[in-house]
Amino acid sequence: MASTSDIRNGLCIKYNHDIFKIIEFLHVKPGKGPAFVRTKLKSVTTGKVIENTFSAGHKIEDVRVETHKFQFLYNDGEFYHFMNTDDYTQIRLLETALDAPGLMKEGEVVTVIINSEDNAPLSVEMPPSVILEVTHTEPGVKGNTATNATKPATVETGAEVNVPLFINEGDKIKIETEKGTYKERIKE
């Protein structure tokens, strides 16, 4: 058993007969009344995100998990297939278990969170950022960097990201996986 002081991003807990992963939290101590923790929880079975408030000191049932490095192999439409980089065993997961499936390209190494009680994979954590090539965007305009204006760009995985106006097709860009936002252009 854990309490609200143990809450952190990525913690898996049992709540309402399901297993949830904490994706966002905020400890709040108002001037009047008791402290509480406001959380966003993502169900590892359905992918549904809910908001919940726990009162300070509330006991929560945490789930013991292990993390393993897996390499993304391919997506067959319904399932995403991964291979353990240590023992080469393969698993397949539904898209709801993934944080940012649109930013994952074949060969990407991710962290898979596995329930240590029944060895069931719970969720997939992407690296903090990925480098992808821009496959389609409107042509860039030289010298147009003074404003924070952006334009949509499609990357090699098919995901769409807003990028600055100077980005062209063929450029490699770093994308922050948590928010799916442009970080920087990669020079080669």
UniProtKB/TrEMBL annotation:
The keyword Cytoplasm applies. GO terms for cellular component: cytosol. GO terms for molecular function: translation elongation factor activity. CDD domains: S1_EF-P_repeat_1, S1_EF-P_repeat_2. Gene3D superfamilies: 2.30.30.30, Nucleic acid-binding proteins. Pfam families: EFP, EFP_N, Elong-fact-P_C. GO terms for biological process: peptide biosynthetic process. Pathway: Protein biosynthesis; polypeptide chain elongation. This is Elongation factor P.
